[in-house]
Specification:
The chain is an alpha/beta fold. It folds into 2 domains: 138 residues, Beta-carbonic Anhydrase, Chain A, CATH 3.40.1050; 34 residues, no CATH class. It is 40% helix and 16% strand. It is built from 8 helices and 5 strands. A 5-stranded mixed beta sheet has the order 2-1-3-4-5. Strand 4 and strand 5 form a beta hairpin. The radius of gyration is 20 Å and the shape is globular. This is carbonic anhydrase. Belongs to the beta-class carbonic anhydrase family. Its cofactor is Zn(2+).
Length: 199
């Protein structure tokens, strides 16, 4: 049985039995937070349970490594929409230990891409268009540093209001234990005092 067949069969029972009712909520996050985290399978349920979230509490964005590549990528766009359209007030960047992005090497990924039958001419065309695949397909060396860089992109973004707080954390993928990298409340207070605005 294919994954699609299995999913569709399960979904039919889920809907017919009314199991969706326990998840009913609005599109506005109750806790007014947005979370960027990794797509790692170990975090699918663990993260929400480790931080006490239920359905409807937060907007959650997932990608490889919980990384914001640049200030105008699709992840940052999603964060901005969450802030301006869905009234979120706090942003959490949550990376994790043992992340696959920590050891990702462009050369190895390119070999796997070629091994799946992607013609090298396609790869050359992408490179000739100005995309640096070696940069795009390379991970990070330190998860804490990666989280800090993403926090700084959000915090310093020209379209993020001053009253939005940005935090950085790292979660352990087995235990769910959190490590605080950046407390946005402390940084917010420091920057507000520097600007002569007291909170």
């Amino acid at each position: 049985m294919s994954a699609l067949t299995k999913i569709m069969k399960y979904n039919e029972g889920f809907v017919n039995e009314g199991n969706y009712q326990e998840f009913e909520t609005t599109k506005y996050p109750d806790q007014k937070i947005v979370i960027l985290t990794c797509m790692d399978t170990r975090l699918l349920e663990l993260l929400q349970k480790a931080i006490g979230l239920k359905n409807g509490d937060a907007k959650i964005i997932r990608n490889a490594g919980a990384v914001i590549a640049n200030p105008f990528d699709s992840v940052m766009r999603s964060i901005l929409i969450s802030i301006h359209e869905f009234e979120t007030k706090e942003v959490f960047i949550i990376g994790h230990h043992e992340c696959g992005m920590a050891s990702l090497q462009a050369e190895a990924i390119l070999e796997k891409i070629k091994g799946q039958g992607i013609d090298e001419k396609c790869i050359d065309t992408i490179i000739q268009s100005g995309i640096s695949l070696s940069d795009w397909l390379t991970g990070f060396g330190c998860v804490e540093k990666s989280v800090s860089q993403s926090v700084n992109i959000v915090k310093n973004h020209p379209l993020v209001p001053n009253n939005v707080v940005v935090h950085g954390l790292v979660i352990h993928p087995q235990t769910g234990q959190l490590e605080l990298v950046i407390d946005g409340n402390e940084n917010k207070q420091e920057s507000s005092i520097e600007e002569g605005i007291y909170v």
